[in-house]
Amino acid sequence: MDLKPTVNTDPRRILPSVDRLMREMASLAADLPLWAAQNASKTALDQVRDQISQGEYSPTGKKEILKRLTEQAVRRARRLIQPHPRSVINATGVVLHTNLGRAPLAKAAQIAVTEASRGYSNLELDLETGRRGSRLGQLEAKLIALSGAEAAHVVNNNAAAVLLALNTLALGKEVVVSRGELVEIGGSFRVPAIMERAGVRLHEIGTTNRTHLSDYEGAIGPETALLLKVHRSNFEQRGFIAEADVRELAELAQRRGIPLVEDLGSGTFLDLDSVGLPEEAHAPTRLRLGVDVVCFSGDKLLGGPQAGILLGTRSSIEAMRRNPLARALRIDKLTVAALDATLDLMLDETRAGEIPVVSGLRSSASDLEPRAQRLLEKLGGEIGAGWRARIQASEAAVGGGSLPEHRLPGWAVVLEGPHVGRLARRLREAPTPVLARVRDDSLWLDVRTLADDDLDEVVSAVAFGLH
Questions:
Q1: Where are the domains of the chain?
Q2: Fold held by 89-99+360-466
Q3: What distance in Å separates the CA atoms of residue 214 and residue 66, rounded to the nearest whole number?
Q4: pLDDT of 7 above 70
Q5: Hey, which bits of 134-200 come out as E strands?
Q6: At what angle do helices 365-379 and 455-466 cross, to 10 degrees?
Q7: What pairing do the DSSP bridges indicate for beta strands 402-416 and 442-446?
Q8: Do the first three CATH levels of 89-99+360-466 and 107-354 match, i.e. the same topology?
Q9: Angstrom distance (rounded) from CA 338 to CA 346
Q10: Are 129 and 123 in contact (CB under 8 A)?
Q11: pLDDT tens digits for 205-258?
Q12: DSSP of 94-118
């Protein structure tokens, strides 16, 4: 009979306590605030426990694990005390980069946000009468002027716009939508899930690749509240496909006495034929074709702040304004200020190019080549041993789930050398982080999304990354 005591060999037993880890952190980084050190210590320990449980990490001793955890926790604590979000330089060429905050605001919009935030404002006060006013009154007037809509409303994003429209116009009833348009947008949000939360019943029609006008006509019944068209903004269908023409859909909806609502995803008021943007991105055209309500994002092709723009008939928009959800989904004073300034620039065609997204989309390859040459010249003295820089014709996506098949031809400075992945990481660690593309074992700095005053910062980040 073996009387030796059983030894617990669970490697998690050698993990330090939170207090022990924090003392070790203090010896390396005494300037860290207590809250950041506590958070980083707990997170680091939780992560290592999970790795051990899943067999992904086997510590060999207390000293090794303490050293590793301390370094990991200090790095996390340093990140926690950085401002968030931080300003970064976008050298990917993707104009609407979702991970980088999508549309950068025009300088006029930045100034408007600063002014709105520095003190009190007349957000909901009519200065002429001294009585309560509308926070969206001026925005609505400008949106109507730009689109030709009867009325307009603004909520905090486009998913909220779809939710408000469906909940207002079809609560408890059926909404007819093509199977080919039941899309999933960023962050795993799906159109059917939004419809369910809006309190409407989904009536799918057609097939994944083909839906005809007759499918809509056959689906309309006593419980049908509206027809919904969703633009496939983050993917394209090719081959044996078919979809109903919007003009015909609008005529059908009018004939049957129900509204047609179209979620554009990305919409604009500007004529962007010069860069080949399709007709369906132009909100005023959709309204002229007979769509009752169109909605789209404010921080995509519009180039403004995050918002959901709703344009349509007076009766539909007024009903949405009266919906209690409108209060929960409303925009704040900073969004009002940024959007108001952006719309002012759109109303003056000579100033629309001040909106960074508009400028980024309109810039041709010939416009961008001189900027790439200037960046190459500035980088000349910063390329280390074993590295070579050259300019190369480039193509970039619009981004932001907008127009997935549309490519923007331009120019990039390409860096070739050893450890490209390390250089990309070091650029992200620079005092002003720079985000670039890694492609074909090279690092691409696409100048479409670089302003002229970004070039020196990019050179400094490259020098930081190579030395």
A1: 11-80, 89-99+360-466, 107-354
A2: Aspartate Aminotransferase, domain 1 (3.90.1150)
A3: 68
A4: no
A5: 151-155, 174-178, 184-185, 189-190
A6: 40
A7: antiparallel
A8: no
A9: 13
A10: no
A11: 998 888 899 999 999 999 999 999 998 765 566 667 788 889 999 999 999 999
A12: -TB-GGGTSSPPPHHHHHHHHHHHS
Q: Which two tokens stand for residue 56?
A: 């992904």
Measured distance CA(30)–CA(464) in Å, rounded: 26
User: 308 by DSSP, 3-state: which?
Assistant: strand
* pLDDT tens-digit series, residues 168-218: 999 999 999 999 888 876 656 788 889 999 999 999 999 888 889 999 999
**Side-chain-facing half-sphere of 351: CA atoms under 13 Å:** 12
CB-based contact 403:278 (threshold 8 Å): yes
Q: Residue 309: which of 295, 323, 299, 330 has the closest Cα?
A: 295
Handedness of CA 43, 48, 49, 53 (dihedral sign): positive
* Residue 342 near residue 332 (C-beta atoms within 8 A): no
CA atoms 113, 115, 119, 123: torsion sign: negative
Please name the residues in contact with 284: beta carbons below 8 A apart, sequence gap of 6 or more. 146, 147, 148, 269
Please name the residue that has the structure tokens 């909106």: 355
* Residue 189: other Cβ atoms inside 10 A: 11
SS3 128: coil
Q: Which of 291, 231, 312 is nearest to 267 (CA)?
A: 231
Residue 282: strand, helix, or coil: strand
Helices 420-429 and 455-466: crossing angle in degrees, nearest 10, is: 120
d(CA 364, CA 368): 6
pLDDT at 137 over 80: yes
Give the CATH architecture of domain 107-354. 3-Layer(aba) Sandwich (3.40)
DSSP state letters, 439-463: ETTEEEEEGGG--GGGHHHHHHHHH
**Gap between the Cα atoms of 440 and 450, Å rounded:** 22
pLDDT bucket at 279, cuts 50 / 70 / 90: confident
Nearest-CA neighbor of 309 among 198, 168, 160, 153? Answer: 153
